[in-house]
Amino acid sequence: MEILEPKQGTYQLEDYSRTRETFDWEQTKEAFSWNKTGNVNIAYETIDRHVDEGRGEKTALYYSDASRDEAYTFQAMKEKTNQAAHVFKDLGVKKGDPVFIFMPRSPELYFALLGAVKAGAVVGPLFEAFMQDAVRARLEDSEAKMIVTTPELVSRIPHEELPHLETILVTGDSSKADEHEKYVSFDEKMKAASTDDSAIEWVDLEDGFVLHYTSGSTGKPKGVYHVHKAMLQQYQTAKWVLDLREDDIYWCTADPGWVTGTSYGIFGPWLYGVTNVVRGGRFSPDDWYATLQNYKVTVWYSAPTAFRMLMAAPKEILEKYDLSSLRHILSVGEPLNPEVVRWGWDVFGLRIHDTWWMTETGAMLICNYPSEPIKPGSMGKPIPGVDASIIDDDGNELGPNEMGNLAIRAGWPAQMRKIWNNEPKFNEYFAIEGWYVSGDTAYKDEDGYFWFQGRNDDVIMTAGERVGPFEIESKLVEHEAIAEAGVIGKPDEIRGHIIKAFVALKDGYEPSDDLQDNIKKFIKSELAAHAVPREIEFKDKLPKTRSGKIMRRVLKAWELDEPTGDLSTMDDA
Ligand code: WTA
């Protein structure tokens, strides 16, 4: 299986090479109503435009979890998001204000998120697993005045320590809202709000709409700021790469707390006007196959870890379901192993199309296309309208099969416009004139296919989620027993990487299994379940530079039994 040839058929991107030569982003503008009216708002284009164009009765959202099973038309979504926009405006939200959404998946999450965007806010989605410290760090940095949450999650918002935070909208009945003067009942406000569209704020294409906090290898999580203009690329890739058609039933498995769950769980598919499936609750093979079967999903966007978990599940589970509706499968977030592509081919008779992009890039950049051959293990080729290259540290472009920095020619439509309150961080990405440097290492082969080789910083991708070692290390050293901590990603068959922590204990503490458990619980309760180190190794001392920085590089070498390299900067080498 060296190369998987495309199936015969018609595709939204018929001729990749020719489109690369002729395409111009100006062409995409014709898809949007602002091209005629001048009124810009991505949420309007996502929902209301379809009602204007006669698709009001089409199902926009199928939502289900263990206790709910609901459907909403575009007309219903329009009314709900208008109501939410009124709620935010009545409470004083102004264009450009950050509004956070901290909720597990539910229809209300989608109403609130799109309603806030309609009201002109910049939405900060927070993953539901975040605990107090993770929530605090993000609300402090953004200085957000408002957040929407649920009765279950509200206690994780330390509002006494967040002077900027004025209003906490809580879903459900009004009983929670009585508990504190900052608490307001979201449901009561929604009921009282008008469904008319007078709360829609018209904005500029360069105004912000989403602020995704993400992790780097150093420092606190950073707020990646995206603008309404991202819709051009989200729409165009929904067409070319997701290959969407009018009657598709589309399922993106990502949570809107991560960028895939907004760019392709909300905006891409709805800018295109297809029916979007959202399944709440946790992963289980039965539940996922049932979702594919029951909704007759045609296009499915997921991640390698999920595919690997399905692959590892007993075959009998798969055999119970009829998955014949599936037409197109895609993957993102981590390297897609050729074994997984092979499995997809065996069990679905379909190729799994890898896509590469990042929180910072806002939308897909390097992809496989239904009309092009796939080389299993390769991320594919840059979308038309975008140039990608492999460059060395001085910005020289490298030749075929030479490994270097994966870089994108700066200026694509969905590119982040800033890092919230942190210009130096933003500038680091663009330090090489004309290029955005991704932090990934890759090479490009003689046919122009890109091959991922790894991160060249310490960012950990675990089960498709991006975790910064610094945030975990900072939390670990707050534990009473820990003097020093270093965190790395350790390769893992299923999850890509797992989090491994090396810790040195304070005087008076001894390594033990109980202490390990206690440390794991501490991270789980204060940071997030997905940030818990699955392995903890006790050390007398950690390798540090003379300036006191933990050398994760050395920890990794220890872990992998590899040479430690140059230790000249190490203290006490
Ligand atoms: C990694 C997720 C290999 C990469 C949309 C990148 C990938 C980081 C792929 C961004 C892929 C994403 N193959 N690695 N197809 N897609 N990555 O910001 O290291 O959560 O830099 O965005 O995920 O993660 P983020």
UniProtKB/TrEMBL annotation:
**Which EC class is the enzyme in?**
ligase
What NCBIfam families would the database entry show? PRK04319.1
The organism is: Alkalicoccus saliphilus
GO CC, alphabetical: cytosol
Biological processes per GO annotation = acetyl-CoA biosynthetic process
Q: Which Pfam families match?
A: AMP-binding, AMP-binding_C
- Sorted alphabetically, which keywords does the UniProt record give? Acetylation, ATP-binding, Ligase, Nucleotide-binding
Instruction: Please identify the protein, giving its name as recorded.
Output: acetate--CoA ligase
Q: Which residue range or ranges hold the AMP-dependent synthetase/ligase domain?
A: 53-410
Per UniProt, what is one GO molecular function of this protein?
acetate-CoA ligase activity
Q: EC number(s) on record?
A: 6.2.1.1
Annotated AMP-binding enzyme C-terminal domain residues: 471-549
Q: Which family does it belong to?
A: Belongs to the ATP-dependent AMP-binding enzyme family.
Keyword Nucleotide-binding belongs to the record: yes
